[in-house]
Amino acid sequence: MKFRKKPVVIKATQFFDNRKPWPRGVKPATLQHNLPRDRDYWPAGAPVVVTIHGQTTRVRDGDWIITEPDGEHFYPCKPDTFAATYEPVEEAAPDAEAIKWAIALLEIHDGVKVNENSQMWLMRLRAMVPVTDAGL
């Protein structure tokens, strides 16, 4: 039996040591990460990512830092693997008319004026109704 990987949109940032601040999820190695064991030795301060499984992995220039679906954990991916696996996705700009309707819906639902400049209204709306291809 054969399977095809489901198309999933990910968030990723390419790492370069000289670009500060480092991407979320990358931190300097501490002494506890310096034990060589079964991997390359790295000095304290070297960039590492601690994965969702607790594995500490050294990050090198050009590696991509991928955000886990939970938004709180990360894992590195080598540039050649990333290029073979992922392609850029264009993000559609929110439809201005859909935004006006969404804000009106929240104001009716909550009975409170919504601040358009805050992104909180969008998170609250997503929790209330299923999001469609309307650009929300």
Would you mind describing this structure in some detail?
- The protein has helices at residues 79-85, 96-110, 120-128, and strands at residues 12-14, 26-28, 47-50, 56-58, 64-67, 74-77.
- It is elongated.
- Helix 2 packs across helix 3.
- It is 23% helix and 15% strand.
- With 136 residues, it is of the alpha+beta class.
- A hairpin with a 5-residue loop joins strand 3 (47-50) and strand 4.
- The strands form 2 sheets. It has a 3-stranded antiparallel beta sheet with strand order 1-5-6. Strands 2-3-4 form a 3-stranded antiparallel beta sheet, with no helix packed on it.
- It has 2 domains: 12-85, no CATH class; 96-128, no CATH class.
- It is built from 3 helices and 6 strands.
Largest sheet: 3 strands, antiparallel
Number of helices: 3
Sequence of secondary-structure elements: EEEEEEHHH
User: Residue share in helices?
Assistant: 10-25%
What class would the helix/strand composition place it in? alpha+beta
Residue windows where pLDDT falls under 50 for at least 5 positions? none
Write a short abstract of this structure.
With 136 residues, the protein is of the alpha+beta class. The protein is 23% helix and 15% strand.
Spell out the key features of this protein.
2 domains, single chain, 6 strands, three-stranded antiparallel beta sheet, elongated, alpha+beta, 136 residues
